[in-house]
Amino acid sequence: MKPRSLVPLVYILFLMLPIYWLVAMSFKTTNEILSGFSLFPQTFTLDAYRTIFTDPTWYWGYINSIIYVSLNTVISVSVALPAAYAFSRYRFLGDKQLFFWLLTNRMAPAAVFALPFFQLYSAVGIFDTHLAVALAHCLFNIPLAVWILEGFMGGVPKELDETAYVDGYSFPRFFVRIFVPTIKAGVGVAAFFCFMFSWVELLLAKTLTAVEAKPIAATMTKTASSAGYELGLLAAAGTLTIIPGAIVIYFVRNYIAKGFAMGRV
Amino acid sequence: MKTENQKAWLFVLPVLALVAFNALIPMMTVVNYSVQETFGNNQFFWEGLTWFEQILRSERFHAALGRQFMFTALILVIEVPLGIAIALSMPRSGPWVPVCLVLMALPMLIPWNVVGAMWNIFTLPDIGLMGYFVNHVLGITYDMTQNPFAAWVTIITMDVWHWTSLVVLLSYAGLVSIPDAYYQAAKIDGASNWSVFRYIQLPKMKNVLTIAILLRFMDSFNIYTEPFVLTGGGPGNSTTLLSIDLVKIALGQFDLGPAAAMSLIYFAITLFVSWLFYTLMTKDDLN
User: Fold this and answer.
1) A105 and A174, same domain (yes or no)
2) Which of A91, A112, A220 sits opposite B117 (nearest CB)?
3) Largest CB tally within 10 Å, which of A29, A125, A261, B246?
4) Same domain, yes or no: A140 and A80
5) Is there a cis peptide before residue B235, judged by omega within 30 degrees of 0?
6) Are residues A20 and A68 in the same domain?
7) Nearest Cα to B284, choosing from B215, B202, B222, B223?
8) Same domain, A172 and A41
9) How far apart are the first and last CA of chain B?
10) pLDDT digits (tens, 9 = 90+) for A59-99
11) Domain extent for A28
């Protein structure tokens, strides 16, 4: 083994240590956690997980998160597809300015928007719904999806569009039946990044929900502050939030690196 | 070649509507607050640019801005070279590459407050793995709730842990796109490793590195949740970055006017620096 290949291994080890610690702690009893340092769980327990899977406020947190994240991914990708097509195929008045403006929304600090978002979504009457969080996350996910999809579409030769018209395809039929399947890797990557950024964001999701659509991450914060310091429970809930991301990333493992590399910058 | 077609606006319309709804209306609310004073009861009084002046002159804002720039500069200086180095040492292909990439991407998919909580557990002085190791094995006193320097080391390490993989993934994507012929030509010419890096790999990575640096700048400049959960801005104000300070003013003290003015200044700085980075890094392409 060449010494150079040790570098990624050492790096991965560094990445895994805090994750290991979280997972290990989730299997420890509260007594063991507070009594001192132990590298492995001495008395292995599933109590924390049992609490989470039997208490509706806990497991509904997961369901809520998954609902609004999926909703956001579907909305973002489906509106970004035609827009990315327009940016990659046509020149139109203000196209460059519009593209830049879309990207500036990626730069807005979420903290700036928290309070106005609360007022806006209360005013239109969808506060504390999954839709509110899904729509709010569109702010940063749509620009990203347009950016990624535009990159992938740019790689598809224009002859494909022209051939389809010659063959008598109408535009919608061409778009759905031929064009989108051609860039399905791009759709996968865009969906992955939308899922990722919606899943990890908490400030807006927490601001826009109270009870009905409360995300799991917010349930955790509450536990940490109100019910004393239940580290085992906190660790178990944290461990469970890693799983959906890990599943999604497995599906796009061959495309993740490519996704950003195809942007137009 | 793109064709001129104004109907393309119809394709863009849904995106425009959704983003405008989320961006313009809240932004107008912020602008509205930034020029008014409120005493509750929904009574507003015109204040003009008073809040902007107050924020721009306030030492508290200068201090938070200084900490913010220091944080962003430190993580960029560490994450970018480290990310490139790791990408360079990865094999160009092989059965282990996808496994490595998945493991490396994992931290980016963890909710931000879980990242904060995880590092909190990890660094607890007596029961955290890192806290225990540093305190009892290395024998260095380390407690981030007491010592500002320890708190800084912790938030920087956490961000390096969280986001270096983004630089790795992007650089790696740039590297694998280099055809083998380039390396063979370099070998025939007897090029050193350094010149291969300087004249072949670095130019090929330039585009993706531009994206990486821009994204890392924007996200680190706007960071809130992770340091808030980890340190709460403390000890004292030592890790109170811009967003944390902003939320303290807006929701903690409910000073909406100053908070709104601060938001606009904050956003303007982010935009300006992003534009500066972008212009500097793409300058050569234009010439």
Assistant:
1) yes
2) A220
3) B246
4) yes
5) yes
6) no
7) B202
8) no
9) 22
10) 888 889 999 999 999 999 999 999 999 998 888 888 888 88
11) 1-45
Partner residues linked to B37 by β-bridges: B45
More confident residue, A259 or B115: B115
Please return the burial class of B98, using the count of CB atoms within 10 Å of its CB with bins 0-12, 13-18 and 19+: middle
The pLDDT tens digits for B173-221 are 888 878 888 888 888 888 888 888 888 888 888 878 888 888 899 889 9
Residue A215, classed as helix, strand or coil, is coil
Long-range contacts for B26-32 (Cβ within 8 Å, ≥24 apart)?
A: B26/A113, B26/A116, B26/A117, B26/A120, B27/A116, B29/A115, B29/A116, B29/A119, B29/A120, B30/A112, B30/A113, B30/A116, B30/B260, B30/B263, B30/B264, B31/B260, B31/B264, B32/B260
One-letter identity of residue A34: L
Q: Is the Cβ pair A245, B106 closer than 8 Å?
A: yes
Give the gap in angstroms from C-alpha B12 to the nearest C-alpha of chain A.
4
Are A124 and A228 in a shared domain?
yes
Query: Tokens 């029961």 appear where?
Result: B127
For tokens 């996910």, the residue is A141
Residue pair B226/B239 in contact (Cβ under 8 Å)? The answer is: no
What residue ranges in chain B does DSSP mark as E strands?
3-4, 36-38, 44-46
Q: What ipTM describes this predicted complex?
A: 0.85
Claim to verify: residue A141 and residue A227 sit in the same structural domain: yes
Domains in chain B (CATH in brackets) are 34-256 (1.10.3720.10)
Q: What global pTM score does this model have?
A: 0.87
Total domains in the fold of chain A: 2
Residues in A touching B132 (Cβ below 8 Å): 37
User: What DSSP state is assigned to residue B212?
Assistant: H
**B266, A12: Cβ pair inside 8 Å?**
no
Residue A50 lies in a domain: no
Q: How far is B114 from A51, CA to CA, in rounded Å?
A: 18
| Residue A264: band (very low, low, confident or very high) from pLDDT cuts 50, 70, 90 | very low
Identify from A112, A141, A196 which residue to disrupt to test chain B contact, counting B C-beta atoms within 10 A and taking the largest count. A112
Classify strands B44-46 and B36-38 as parallel, antiparallel or unpaired: antiparallel
CATH number at residue A196: 1.10.3720.10
Question: What is the amino acid identity at position B258?
Answer: P
Residue ranges of alpha helices (H) inside A108-177 are 110-123, 130-154, 159-166, 171-173
* Closest C-alpha among A198, A201, A204, A197 to residue A117: A204
A258 touches A185 (CB < 8 A): yes
Token pair for B197: 């890096």
Candidate from A91, A106, A117 with C-beta closest to B218: A106
